[in-house]
Amino acid sequence: MITDILVCPICRNGLSFSEGGRSLVCPSGHCFDISSSGYVNLTRGSSVNISGDSKDMIRARRDFLAAGYYLPIANGVVEALDAVSPSRIVDAGCGEGYYTSHFAKSFPHAGVIGFDLSKPGIELASKAAKRDGLSDRLSYSVCGIFDLPIRDRSVSAVTNLFAPCAGEEFRRVLRDDGRLITVVAGVRHLFGLKAAIYDEPYENEERRDSIDGFVLDDIIEVRQTATISKEHIFPLFTMTPYYFRTGERDKDKLLSLDSLTTEVAADILIYRKV
Fold first, then answer.
1. Residue range of the domain that includes 207
2. 107 lies in some domain
3. CATH number of the domain residue 151 falls in
4. Which DSSP category does 250 fall into?
């Protein structure tokens, strides 16, 4: 587990391993146990009452992403990270760790830490890191991204993929030469999915978000067409906001499909700290 940039979420002092290595402790005596899976819970305050994505949603996302449909997005972010030559990467809102693991494998000399409020997601990610032999340079924590237990100006890059953006917090933890890399849905992202559900599908609005303390430096556009197999259609659907605002009749349309052809369109936005 990477500890050199971690701080105690209560007093903000540095964290180190306890004797025996089963916990992280700070000089003030606050102690955070490391789970058998290898992650640590560093939530505090109101974040403790927020659970993040459920176990079923996390497993559905794992199964879909493992099939490789979004690999071009992961590769695009790696391309953006490569320009930074990162030594420390924070993946804010990492979920089950699909992208986080990809970063650790692509940058063997970097330390990578993933944060998410979903305990099932972090547990799944930690088990995968241990299984893949990455635990020495890839670690995970249950924690909200708006209150990261990270030292000021200690991180080379923050990645924030299809997740809420905590711009002020990201600016705090990034080094002066660091980069914030976000991924947002492109205009035609999953248009085929929407066409299969709705009578009048609509395109997404183009996003070129302005984030205080950052300037948008570059954009990588990922555009491809994917044919989703029957077993992965509903897992994909559960990953989208449409899952929560679609009626049963329209959901049944998806379940009746043998396959689904849809656009995968993501915009990777690369921000420089100013």
1. 39-188+201-223+264-273
2. yes
3. 3.40.50.150
4. H
Residue 165, classed as helix, strand or coil, is coil
**Crossing angle between the packed helical segments 98-106 and 71-82, to the nearest 10 degrees:** 40
Q: Answer whether residue 174 is part of any domain.
A: yes
Tell me the two tokens of residue 60: 């559905």
Strands 138-142 and 111-116 turn out to be parallel
Classify the phi-psi angles of 54: left when phi > 0, otherwise alpha if psi is within -120 to 50, otherwise beta: beta
Question: How many independent structural domains does the chain possess?
Answer: 1
Look at residue 97 in the predicted model and tell me its pLDDT: 97
Cα distance between residue 32 and residue 143, in whole Å: 12
Chain-centre distance of CA 221, in angstroms?
18
Binning pLDDT at 50, 70 and 90, where does residue 48 land? very low
Rounded Cα distance, 274 and 271, in Å: 9
Question: Hey, what are 35's tokens?
Answer: 């789970």
Radius of gyration of the chain (CA): 19
- Helix H or strand E encompassing 122: helix 119-131
pLDDT exceeds cutoff 80 at 46? no
Q: What is the CB neighbour count within 10 angstroms for residue 173?
A: 22
Judge whether 20 lies within some domain: no
212 within some domain: yes
What is the amino acid identity at position 270? Answer: I
> What token pair was written down for 143?
């924690």
